[in-house]
Fold:
Amino acid sequence: MEFSSGLFLNAIIAGLLLGGFYAAVSVGISISFGMLDVVNIAHPGFVILGAYIAYIVNSLFGFDPIVVALALSPLFFLLGMALYRIYYVCFEMRGQDSLRGLAFFFGILFITEVTLILTFGVDYRTVQTIYSDTTWRLGELDFPLRLVVPFAVSMAMLGGLHLLFTRTFFGRAVLAVAQDQLALRLMGVDPIRIKTFAFALSIATAGVAGAFLIVIQPVEPSIGREYIGLAFAVCVLGGLGSLTGTLVGAFVLGLAESFTATFFGPSWAPAVSFGLLLLALAFRPAGLFGR
Amino acid sequence: MKQRMSNRTFAVVAFVVAIALAAVCQLIPNEFFFSAAYTVLLYVILATAWNILGGYTGYVNFGSAAFFAIGAYTTVALYYAVKAPLLVTVPVGMAVAGLAGLGLGYLTLRLRGVFFAIASLALAVVLFTFVVNWDFVGGARGAYVLQPTEVPFGLKNFIHLLFSVQLLMAAGALVVARSIETSTIGRGLAAIRDDELAAEAAGVPTLRLKILSAAISGALMGMAGTTFPYYLSYIEPSSAFSLSYSVNSIAMPLIGGMMSWMGPLIGAVLLGTVQQIVQVTISSAWNLLIVGVLLVLFVTLAPNGIMGWVEAWRQRHRK
Amino acid sequence: MSDEFLLEVKSVTKRFGGFTALDDVDLAVRPGERLGLIGPNGSGKTTLINCVSGTLRNESGSIRFAGEEIGALPAYQRTRRGIARSFQIPRPFTSMSVLENLVVPIEYVAHRALLHAGDTRPEAMAILEKIGLAEKAGTPSNRLSQVELRKLELARAMAAKPKLLISDEAMAGLAGNEVDEVLDILFRLNEAGITIIMIEHIMQAVMRFSQRVVCLDAGKIICEGAPASIVRDPNVQRAYLGA
Structure:
């Protein structure tokens, strides 16, 4: 394969655009694990669920999947609230060891995946949007719109979350709840409500990320598992609980995968994110922007 | 934890029972019994192995399928390389899987349990990708491992042999688990599970024991996989790395009870048998859904499993 | 290398992010000494103990025990070298009975052989008798009262046959006669040659027990000396009562 500057630059562009998507997938983990210390490994299951819901609405009514996902995000929010309630009552309140919490979420992930298999089968599903086949060209550089649009919406979503966490009372309460629940309670704020809200928010982001996913690539129920390592790799690399860190980690991962796929072949790509995760865990558990 | 039987006695009993069962079952006319029993025994080994790191030490492994597949693919690789018999591939497969457990443990057991759990899942994906790209063992197309035409010990056919070998392996796994559980090491692991900080302060070398536990657990899971390529005479990555192994190895100890060697045995026999029935009567996808639902139900409502119910019942009737 | 001190803490600093929990702390304890460590909540007493026992690693400074630099050793090795501590908030092994809780340190410290530790029960029972928990030997440790849990904490530290025993608020919540019971145990341990550091808020216990008292405030040692003089020290009074 010729090493041309065009190939190189396009790998960078694809990596960055993909990184924007990965950030959307991972931000939920950054909130639930980084800030709330809830190991929701079922998170990618909700991303896939979001992808399938967007798929159904798109195939029935033709609406753009991202628009659908944004419109339906309150549903995911409610789902998140319910899930946290169960988690809290069964595990956190009882002070159970984290082993059972982990097993619980793994079970939820598994149930989600199998239910999707039972409903939709294992075939790949895709959507058609008005921009799926369009690519902006700038000289040698390709900007496939199916990557650009999710990237743009993802950046907007992350920007909104950043403002939420830094400028609003709710957002700062979430950061506080991670550090000192008692102080929060003394201020008259119910930490449980804050945590429920934040967790619900993380699930809502999953639903939206699902729409990004199905715009970018075909989806089938089991690919959720590949994103577990990815999301945690991004968050560990970027530093747990830091939104900026999550963004940076996502770009790093996107670039690494893009280069691997371009120069070594796409079948090695899943190993990249997990390999990076293993290395990150072995050497830098605090991440790049550690708290 | 009163010990009624010494570990040596238990080992003798376990193996005698296994051999006796193997002999008696040869008379069963229904061939399906053997492949169903093989699968259930596979889960007995996996669940028992998982529980050493999971129930005894408190660290969740999501990647049991990876260790299982290591055992399976070591058999395949040795078969293609030197036509090695089971007698060779089993210990080698265990050694490789044990090393993987040791390596994974060494990298991640210094950190919180959740990182080990995620890393184990990562390992499964990385190894899967690696195997898919490794043509020597067939890659994505899969590989054929032919059952020998001559069946030793005068058994009727090869699946009978596999069943018997699996019985012995299951007995072995149970002996190892019980020996650990009732030993000083087991008490150290329990201390780590209950409160790692206090265990460390009480003189328990926590990191070393955790890594040891991960290595033993991995080796036994690998052992379960070593006979698998012979089962269907064919192996390919998706089935070897099937999520079913990972989920079941968590669900079965959870349902049976994680505190003792009996829990995974009970959970595997019960859940494994149910799955065999469901798989044949309904479908394998529904089968997996049932496992998932049972896992969630038990972990939220009955976290101590069936053994926990029995314990609670016994406590109440003691008064 | 000095035989004068069993424990030598020199210039130890411990930070948690931007917060300095211990600021250049020096502490020296003689063999056989009874040292009281006092200070308001959050002053760094438990952090200091955590650094000595190995539960935490200090950023700078040195910790020498019996002439050996132990700063790089993991906690379990420090326990095996003779430092035992009880936890301020009891941390029992919840799946085990009271007796089994003691078997762990006996097997891993006192009896050290990994494959066959010998019968540990008589030794464990002896400790339970000393501390007054003998009838609860078979009770699951997650069914103990707060008071019994604190005694178990101390018993577990005793089971490690330490040269230095650090008791972290072992008497919190105990009634008068129970405080006397625990003090009595600590006195007898000291008479048998064990050096004891006592962290306590119950002043009369600290005064009765300690030969020397050290006071910490905001990560710094503000006062050191005989019990009677400490109580009168204005710095100590200010630390406890506020400026």
